């Protein structure tokens, strides 16, 4: 299956794109040699353009060395010349000098016009305001070092940055205001973005732990106290920027929820990873209950207002319609994340729960641009298991294998997905001929036999297998009938009361079979 280079690389944050190009083309876990020549050339060209417009000479040299090592013939326009290196070096020097000059001058804030700039509250003390300018200058330095791919220097700068933040907090009457907490959260978040750009999830894990959770919860607690009776009765003198502050907290919670989900994926906790992408999960339900309360209250009020209802009327949370744009700007590739969620949901969750999660507006936007993903969801809904297994293998090769965060665990996730599909198929029968099942599922007989044996050993399938006749017999036939007691009762009633029950029985059997094949 050939995939557009734009989907493979172009949908990720800018700082990750060159890393993704190198992973796809050169990594042993990538798939550079499996791509057709045209796709590979397009990815090469994208990588070269990123390098030429960047700040890292060492990365350009490393790219050229990898090309020679892999014996890839560079397409026309993909040669990195000495002149290109000189241009990048001059640009890097200029950026570094600019950052140093900003750091030395504590006057005008050079970052105030950027989208991620800190807001300056009117009641902030002069000391804290000066400290913020210094912190911004240091953050700018860390960002330039990240663009130069000098990650050791970047991490050292960030460590110094956090020390300064803590010292400033101690000097502001030993209490954390909402503004000061949001300042620290902003620094943590941008540090996480830089580490994600380097593909360093181990560092990310240290940044999104208990300390960050405490900051989020403290800010939410302050805002809940300020809100008092509700969003319609907020005293403006208590917090003039209440609405903006809640939205800022909501964005931080969304960001850290998805990043923490990536860390769960790294730990092979596919169940926990998938559950993050529920409406409440994306609002911090599992790790920041006060934040979830604040955001849910605010979101419900928004929905109620849009429908002309009372502000405090309970309602559904609004969909996060910008989720994909948000993910691709700050965290990772949107389509890769969508495929990861799709696989994890069907591998780890009950089928109906997985289907509900996958088709909700928030999540669907992540994977709907991948035709094979759309088809996979459809065939799973229709219980066409052989097609599902075939499509899953292709999707795993195209998206799990090409993602810098999923590549190490793609085979394991695919295996768990296959186990879930086979378990669902087997649950439709009391006795199965393994040979016929292998043909129907398009799985080698030996592989299916091993998979069933493993499911039995793990306790996920209550059955016994005749290794001579290759027949699997399930043990909990009676238990299955309990799950569909309504259909069984209808069937028995038809048999006992109807004189002409044959057609009714057949129809009931069809309904029962449909129920068993389409629900997990």
TrEMBL record:
Leader peptide range in chain numbering: none
Keywords: Cytoplasm, Nucleus, Signalosome
Keyword Lipid biosynthesis in record: no
Entries under Gene3D superfamilies matching the protein: 1.25.40.570
Domain of life: Eukaryota
Keyword Nucleus: yes
InterPro entries: Rpn7/CSN1
GO cellular component: COP9 signalosome; cytoplasm
Cellular location(s): Cytoplasm; Nucleus
Protein name: Uncharacterized protein
Native source organism of the sequence: Trypanosoma theileri
Organism lineage string: Eukaryota, Discoba, Euglenozoa, Kinetoplastea, Metakinetoplastina
